[in-house]
């Protein structure tokens, strides 16, 4: 294990990120969005990086969490803690269903199934406009209150999200370092061998889906309260693509790479959009460069810099073959 991949270091870097963002960013909304997407991308990383499942269904769970928060807070006035817990439970339930059906196929067929489910849930949200608001979404989603005070100020809500982010990140670190997490890595490396020694690989994959779906829906609920709207765009397949792009940019070999990926994408998008209306073209060129020259993402670059500064031998990407 690389020294930077140790659980204490990963969590320490997450705490440092939470402390540093207010010092360098003037927008509390942008800083809060970075933390929300960081936890969502980390949940995607649990599937892609640790289980080897390339899923285009993450937008489903993000949108479900968004709508759950929008409906509960605008129509039923449910307490925010119950909304967040309910969103996570609903996200886990839907992810379990999607995962149970999707993992029946492997490779490109698995990818196409998750994409098909993404489109299915999008059209359901679009069709049942009486519940979801259709194209307009659900407007007027309020932010939570703490001690009777509404957290309407951007930085006060940032503090609320920061606590949630650190709690979620700590849970994900414990999951990946547990026997369960090590088993997911074994399934990623050689599913046939893992099954041969007695691991119920399908069950482990479904559990990974459930955890990922719960965290993603939790983030979706926080995002609805951030922008005050539960929009239809949150459940589009483009959201799944966005989450996957952030995961790949950051690097799927580390949970903190997810934080780097989310921060890099959102900060770059914010900067480029102020320079040129067609900023997505510039962003595309950056993504091509990352794909060509940083196959292990930004986290791989950080590890190489760490090794160069301390003059360490870089960690091998693959274990040495035994003779």
From TrEMBL:
One of its GO terms (molecular function) is branched-chain amino acid transmembrane transporter activity. Pfam families: BPD_transp_2 (PF02653). Keywords: Cell membrane, Membrane, Transmembrane, Transmembrane helix. InterPro entries: ABC_transp_permease, LivM-like. It is a multi-pass membrane protein. The chain crosses the membrane at residues 12-41, 53-76, 82-101, 108-128, 155-175, 208-230, 242-268, 280-302. It comes from the Bacteria. Its main location: membrane. It is found in: Cell membrane. Coiled coil: none annotated. GO terms for cellular component: plasma membrane. This is Branched-chain amino acid ABC transporter permease. It comes from Paracoccus salipaludis.
């Amino acid at each position: 294990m690389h020294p930077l991949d140790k659980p204490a270091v990963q969590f320490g870097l997450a705490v440092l990120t939470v402390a540093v963002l207010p010092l360098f960013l003037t927008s509390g909304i942008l800083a809060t969005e970075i933390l929300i997407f960081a936890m969502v991308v980390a949940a995607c990383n649990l599937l892609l990086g640790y289980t080897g499942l390339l899923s285009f269904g993450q937008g489903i769970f993000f949108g479900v969490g968004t709508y759950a928060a929008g409906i509960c807070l605008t129509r039923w006035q449910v307490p925010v803690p119950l909304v967040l817990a309910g969103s996570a439970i609903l996200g886990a339930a839907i992810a379990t269903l999607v995962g149970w059906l999707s993992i029946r196929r492997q490779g490109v067929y698995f990818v196409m199934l998750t994409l098909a489910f993404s489109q299915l849930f999008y059209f359901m949200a679009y069709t049942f406009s009486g519940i979801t608001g259709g194209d307009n979404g659900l407007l007027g989603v309020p932010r939570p209150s703490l001690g009777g005070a509404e957290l309407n100020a951007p930085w006060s809500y940032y503090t609320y999200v920061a606590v949630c982010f650190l709690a979620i990140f700590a849970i994900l670190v414990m999951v990946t370092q547990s026997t369960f997490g090590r088993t997911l890595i074994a399934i990623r490396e050689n599913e046939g061998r893992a099954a041969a020694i007695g691991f119920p690989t399908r069950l482990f994959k479904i559990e990974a889906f459930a955890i990922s779906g719960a965290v993603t829906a939790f983030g979706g609920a926080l995002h609805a309260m951030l922008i005050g709207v539960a929009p239809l765009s949150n459940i589009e397949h483009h959201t799944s693509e966005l989450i996957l792009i952030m995961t790949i940019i950051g690097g799927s070999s580390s949970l903190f790479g997810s934080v780097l990926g989310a921060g890099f994408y959102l900060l770059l998008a914010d900067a480029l959009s102020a320079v040129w209306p067609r900023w997505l073209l510039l962003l595309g060129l950056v993504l091509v460069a990352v794909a060509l020259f940083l196959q292990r993402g930004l986290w791989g670059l950080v590890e190489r810099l760490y090794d160069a500064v301390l003059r360490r031998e870089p960690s091998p990407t693959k274990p040495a073959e035994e003779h």
